[in-house]
Design goal:
The chain is an alpha/beta fold. The chain is built from 14 helices and 18 strands.
Amino acid sequence: MTPQTREQKMLSLAPRANVVFEINLNAVQANFQIISAVVGPYVRVAAVVKSDGYGLGLIEIARALVAAGCDLLFVGDLHEALLLRSSKIGAAVAVFCDEFTRLRQYYRSNRLIPVVNNCGELDAISASGEAQTYFLNVETGLSRVGLTFDDVRRRYLWGTFNRHPPSVVLSHLACGDRVADAMNVLQRNRFRAISDLLKPARHSLAASAGVWLGKSYHFDMVRVGSALYGLNNAGIQPNPLQPVVRLRAKILEVRNVRKGEAVGYGATFRTVRASRIAILGIGYKHGVPWACGNKISVRFAGYSAPLIGRMSMEYAVADATDVPEALCGPGVFAEMLGENFTVNDLAAAADVYPQDVLTRLGAGCTRRYLNASYPAGESRAGQPMQATDPTTPRSSREVASE
Ligand SMILES: *Cc1c(COP(=O)(O)O)cnc(C)c1O
């Protein structure tokens, strides 16, 4: 770790300790191994670490995944790619979408792989005549970024791909988390039709949810993000993934209120009995969805306490009447997310999107890493994992650059 400045030291005396957001890096690694086992040894598992590692910390997550044997990382933009490079993360890095044509020099000098998303980018490679490693994104049903079948066919006829073959052709499923959705079959068929024109490039269609759709969706590579972070968006039962995050909030105050009192903004909750309520130091500024008010519970040891009333910016209120007093005094932490209640559970209860919750929590809470020392054992690439701990200086934790 870098030496602390005076300001950092001062701030560390007053840590933001009302909320503890823990990220279990061993669980991230375990999920990488679980997915690797599902797709088998002939399918590459690339990790998607965009949006600051889904809010969990780009560098910490990338380092844990590389130590677990991951050799290809996808980031959202060039900025994240350069952060990985400046942290000497030893993996290939592909950039989902950034101005490749204008910023090509940065890609070249940092050995970054652009995902080519439109004709302009592909034609710029072709016009330059220079060799360029790139992935080609093709549109099969998401109507987002990517070349259409007609775009690809035209350039196939021009001979573009003979002169500048993509190393990977990819597309993205719109409904991968709904196993029986006909969109999946449609997109797979379209993907095959396009990628037949682009052999011998490697092919990649599935993100996390697509992993569970079966072999015919795996092609040569899967690109997994949310599953690595413990999200089971396809609802596979029993859940094969390990939970990665744990969120706890401190009780600031406990108060007794009479029957019939209103709780919170809008008086959306009224006590139906004399109640003991716990005021928690957590709110939507920490990334907990505002829509959780009146919808979820927190836990004290084995006891559950429902959140009552609307969530405030920095407070939430739990009805602790049924929790033994000894378990929920001021200073005690209530668990909001953990093994018993996951991000998926919260997202379902509040009718919000799990990735949305995760990225907001990561941005809104101070992150704390658990198990940053990697387990002994063989990585996927056959390299022993490095035994590290978070306090080791950076240089000794780095994995050799490719
Ligand atoms: C975000 C993203 C992924 C990863 O999606 P998950 O569902 O989180 O695994 C894969 N491919 C593309 C193109 C993406 O944008």
